[in-house]
Amino acid sequence: MNDNKGKQLLAQTDHEITVTMSGDSVQDITGKIFQGMRRQIFKEFDQPIIHLEAQEVYFEKVEKHTQTEKFMLFFWPREKVTYTITAKIVVRIKYLDYTEEER
Fold it and tell me: Within 13 Å of residue 32, how many CA atoms lie on the same side as its CB?
């Protein structure tokens, strides 16, 4: 860590990530997409992350599935809708860029 003394450690990079999530509403899925994005970035990135900021968001694929459900096969039919969204997100990552010395 002595090699880093007095050195500017804050660095940033743009990282592209693709996330696919499913849910009952687009609002629900949007929250899940960004939670999944954060989880995936923390797994892939080996430096301490200070800040994440979405720069660009693209919905690459949006699927709507509609299914009719009935109580006891005949009564009270209702439509159940589920969505599956694949999103491409460009994230600006600010992190600490330092080197640890080997012991």
Answer: 15
Q: Which residues contact 35 (CB under 8 A, 6 or more apart)?
A: none
Q: Scanning the structure block, which residue is given the tokens 């592209």? A: 16
Residue 91 has a CB neighbour count (10 Å cut-off) of 21
Q: Please state, in angstroms and rounded to a whole number, the distance separating the CA atoms of residues 17 and 3.
A: 32
- Two structure tokens written together for 38: 């954060």
- Cα–Cα distance list, 23 to 7, 48, 61, 62, 87 (Å): 46, 31, 14, 12, 14
Roughly how many angstroms between the first and final C-alpha of the chain, as a whole number?
11
Q: State the pTM of this model.
A: 0.76
Name the β-bridge partners of 63.
84
DSSP 8-state code for residue 73: T
The per-residue pLDDT for range 58-90, each reduced to its tens digit, is: 999 999 999 888 777 677 788 889 999 999 999
Taking the C-alpha atoms of residue 87 and residue 85, their distance in angstroms, rounded to an integer, is: 6
